[in-house]
Design goal:
Helix content is about 40%, strand content about 15%. The mean pLDDT is about 95. The chain is globular. It is an alpha/beta fold. The protein has 2 domains: about 160 residues, Rossmann fold, CATH 3.40.50; about 240 residues, pyruvate-formate lyase- activating enzyme (Alpha-Beta Horseshoe), CATH 3.80.30.20. The structure holds cobalamin (B12). Cobalamin binds next to helix 1, strand 3, strand 4, helix 4 and helix 6.
């Protein structure tokens, strides 16, 4: 069959991201014998025209739309991406007779609502490297696609789903030949690193999170040697920045250590990044190993420094792990971004102050701190159930594509935002969503690349904000 994969994501907030999942789906279609083309809408000036052209010229049998984001997860400046995605799908429908399939991280979070919104024929969940070829095989041989694990559809107004198979092993299927599908140099010009994942699944029980339902709760580890091969291939093709986008990079700890050891022993001239370190496993030996491996930037997803809030969020760590992680970070030169999520269950003015106090005391001024305010609610999560019990969420699940946020009754929105604004004014290395919403942020990446600045750009947050302040620009 002729398969067109369309990556609809055009968001540059906080930075453009390379359509990793869409590339995996395209590679899976190609490897299973289908004639496959890819349309990346990220940098297209006229996305609808480009899509119509691709549909008319290629006349695909199947158009697979990769939907990454539902919205920007920002309570203060919410942006929803689903209406735009639906308009692209409608344009494809008008331009050709292809069957329309949805996939991607957003589709995994709310498949039914997205199927109903877009009118797509099917949604394929689970690992695209295994489920997508099985789906295409069913379609091409006239079998019911719903017989394939991970496929769902709305027919006659009714939603049917065949649950995804979370037992497929993680391996080479995670490493597409990116250069076949996207223009890597455009991404490099926007200071975007190439993403790689070294495992699937997430065993943690964070109350707001969709990862275990999207990938399964058990780990499926990619052999570190296989990941090293993918890193080598990318480096050989000229890629200089590689970001590990595992849900949690440093768990299982031994797997991360083994990979770092291999990277250190086989230096390929690339810089490595990850934003997904869990404080429980962030210690001295790990940072030592990451430094030797060539990591140029790390992020610690701390969320809160208050033990009560961490427990209510369902976290596996407490404030003593944060203290230990901070002590380890201080001993190493790798720039670090700390990420906090304020307003979750159990949050009060007191607990917010405790987290801010941790950031002031323990984060080096040369490092960056990002504060999220408000927790995006997703169907099927324990936090959704709690919010309904509390009475703060009344919207039916079908309407949750429009962003809805949880804010603890113990802290009011105005106070929280004013307190955050004061903290970010006082500390130039502290940022909140105001900075991410800056309209010129995307241009800044291009400028920085042109000036030869190395990734990650966020390590210059303090300096950039000071310059902007000098120019009278609020950031
Ligand atoms: C790492 C990450 C980031 C990094 C990205 C770094 C980088 N260099 O790429 C950073 C921190 C920058 C980031 C930013 C954002 N992220 Co983010 N991110 C992730 C994370 C943890 C992994 C994404 C990834 O690369 N996965 C690996 C690829 C291979 O998986 P995949 O894309 O899902 O694709 C698989 C399937 O979905 C499927 N598939 C994909 N496309 C298609 C197409 C077809 C046809 C088929 C059949 C299958 C298919 O096949 C793939 C392989 O199985 C996910 C969580 C998660 N577990 O998905 C969140 C996630 C994708 N992010 C999310 C969000 C909201 C954002 C932001 C909007 C806000 C934010 N929190 O910062 C921004 C948007 C940035 C942008 N410009 O678009 C949401 C998106 C859904 C939603 N809730 O709206 C997720 C799912 C987290 C969540 N549950 O809330 N993110």
């Amino acid at each position: 069959m002729k398969i067109l994969i369309v990556s609809v994501n055009r968001s540059r907030q906080p930075a453009a991201v390379l359509p990793y999942g869409a590339c995996v789906a395209a590679q899976a279609a190609l490897n299973s014998g289908h004639e496959t083309r890819f349309l990346d809408l990220m940098f297209e000036k006229g996305p609808v025209k480009a899509l119509e052209r691709a549909c008319r010229d290629f006349r695909p049998d199947v158009a697979g739309f990769s939907l990454r984001n539902i919205d920007n997860n920002d309570m203060r400046y919410p942006v929803s991406y689903t209406a735009e995605a639906a308009s692209f799908i409608a344009a494809a429908r008008r331009a050709c007779g292809a069957k329309i399939v949805l996939g991607g991280a957003a589709a995994a979070v709310m498949p039914e609502a997205l199927l109903r919104l877009t009118g797509a024929d099917w949604c394929v969940l689970g690992e695209a490297s295994s489920s997508f070829p099985l789906f295409l095989a069913a379609l091409s041989t006239g079998r019911d696609p719903l017989s394939v694990r991970g496929v769902c559809a709305v027919a006659n107004g009714l939603f049917s789903a065949n649950p995804p198979d979370f037992s497929t092993p993680s391996g080479a299927g995670l490493f597409p030949d990116f250069g076949l599908w996207v223009d890597l140099s455009s991404y490099a010009r926007h200071m975007v690193s190439v993403p790689l994942k070294t495992k699937l699944g997430c065993p943690f029980g964070c109350v707001y999170c969709t990862y275990p339902s999207g990938e399964g709760a058990g780990y499926r580890l990619c052999p570190p040697e296989t990941a090293l091969r993918a890193v080598r291939d990318l480096a050989a093709s000229g890629v200089r920045d590689i970001e590990f986008v595992d849900n949690v990079f440093n768990s299982p700890y031994a797997h991360a250590m083994e990979l770092c050891g291999l990277l250190a022993g086989n230096r390929v001239g690339a810089r490595f990044h990850t934003m997904e370190l869990n404080p429980e496993f962030t210690d001295e030996p790990l940072l030592e190993a990451m430094e030797r491996a060539g990591f140029a930037g790390i992020g610690i997803t701390a969320e809160s420094a208050d033990d009560g809030v961490l427990a209510s969020l369902g976290k596996n760590y407490n404030s003593s792990h944060l203290e230990r992680a901070a002590a380890a970070v201080e001993k190493h030169a790798i720039p670090c971004m700390w990420v906090f999520l304020l307003g979750g269950p159990g949050e009060t003015r007191e607990t917010v102050r405790r987290t801010l106090d941790f950031a002031r005391r323990r984060v080096r001024p040369s490092d960056t701190v990002f504060f999220n305010a408000g927790v995006r609610l997703y169907p099927g999560t324990p936090l959704e159930a709690a919010a309904r019990l509390e009475g703060s969420l009344t919207k039916p699940q079908a309407e949750m594509l429009e962003p809805v946020f949880y804010l603890s009754p113990g802290v009011d929105k105005d106070w929280l935002l004013a307190t955050l604004a004061a903290a970010t004014r006082e500390h130039m290395n502290f940022i909140a969503s105001d900075t991410l919403a800056l309209p010129f942020l995307s241009g800044l990446y291009g400028l920085a690349h042109f000036a030869g600045v190395k990734q990650p750009l966020w390590k210059h947050t303090g300096a950039i904000r000071r310059v902007l302040k000098g120019l009278g620009v609020r950031s």
